[in-house]
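STRUCTURE:
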């Protein structure tokens, strides 16, 4: 049920309430669509320091989230809830991310945080986890969960989730104790885009779940961007599809920062920017390699590097056992 259909007496009670416990009592008496079990969970959860529940009518509820279709009535949180009031960018992508995809994610997250922007994601493996890891070091990340906030999913991210709870912020619309269900994650994705001013997809196959976050963003009028890759590699097809739908091509993090009229750390050092452009080109060089032979000319065209630079990198890749020379060029034989 949307907020516009809420009974006036519930809205009035919510605005007058001074605590989540009081709000819960009033909702429990006058707003039947709220599950009583969730009310009890909210009361219990709000009794511990640095965690609590934010209702739709609270001042702490993020304004951008109110504008989406079917916003959540309650947000359970653990950590620094003030992060909900800052500018945020959702950085999402494939769970089975490539090495270059993780590198690009790290670069994007670093520059967003340096510019004072909060990195939002869904705590999945791959791109999501990398975005959180990079941003959490500076306390600038929000993880939106598809489970109750006291659950660890996936279990492999337990340490990261605890770190985010300490340095950043965890939020969920699901009450404590709620385990993962397949239908939870599309619901989670609408919140990821809903609390963000922009959505960026780093790497995604055509059927990747991360595309639903971008679609929510497009539907809700958010800025949406996608990082391109090789047209021959399935893990980039979702990003290319988004570009066809009108998403902005993201070549460097500054393309994202331009939406906010800022730059990393307030200014961009030319030497640093040149180095990062080279790093991105190196990522694209490695991403251009697959099981089909690539010639040096192919790799020059796909990466934007000079011939000498490509040849130097290929030698290093061979020494690391990442590529092999075959008739017709080079193929990828490993992943860093």
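SEQUENCE:
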């Amino acid at each position: 049920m949307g907020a516009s259909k809420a009974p006036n007496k519930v809205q009035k009670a919510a605005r007058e309430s001074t605590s989540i416990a009081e709000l819960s009592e009033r909702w429990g008496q006058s707003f039947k669509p709220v599950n009583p079990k969730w009310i009890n969970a909210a009361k219990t959860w709000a009794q511990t320091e640095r965690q609590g529940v934010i209702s739709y009518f609270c001042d702490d509820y993020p304004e951008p989230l109110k504008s989406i279709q079917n916003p959540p009535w309650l947000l359970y949180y653990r950590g620094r809830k003030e992060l909900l009031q800052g500018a945020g960018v959702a950085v999402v992508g494939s769970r089975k991310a490539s090495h270059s995809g993780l590198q690009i994610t790290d670069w994007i997250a670093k520059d967003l945080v340096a510019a004072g922007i909060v990195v939002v994601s869904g705590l999945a493996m791959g791109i999501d986890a990398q975005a959180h890891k990079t941003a959490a070091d500076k306390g600038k990340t929000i993880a939106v969960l598809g489970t109750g906030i006291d659950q660890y999913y996936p279990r492999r991210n337990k340490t990261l989730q605890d770190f985010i709870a300490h340095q950043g912020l965890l939020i969920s619309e699901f009450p404590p104790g709620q385990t993962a269900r397949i239908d939870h994650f599309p619901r989670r994705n609408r919140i990821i885009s809903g609390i963000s001013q922009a959505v960026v997809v780093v790497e995604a196959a055509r059927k990747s779940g991360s595309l639903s976050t971008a679609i929510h963003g497009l539907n809700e009028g958010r800025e949406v961007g996608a990082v391109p890759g090789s047209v021959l590699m399935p893990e980039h097809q979702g990003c290319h599809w988004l570009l066809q739908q009108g998403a902005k091509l993201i070549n460097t993090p500054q393309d994202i920062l331009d939406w906010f009229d800022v730059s990393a750390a307030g200014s961009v050092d030319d030497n640093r920017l040149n180095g990062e452009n080279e790093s991105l080109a190196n990522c694209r060089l490695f991403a251009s390699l697959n099981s089909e032979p690539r010639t040096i000319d192919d790799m020059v065209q796909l990466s934007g590097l000079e011939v000498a630079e490509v040849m130097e990198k290929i030698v290093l890749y061979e020494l690391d056992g990442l590529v092999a020379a075959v008739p017709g060029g080079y193929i990828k034989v490993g992943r860093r």
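REMARK: The domain at 85-268 is CATH 3.40.50.450 (Rossmann fold).
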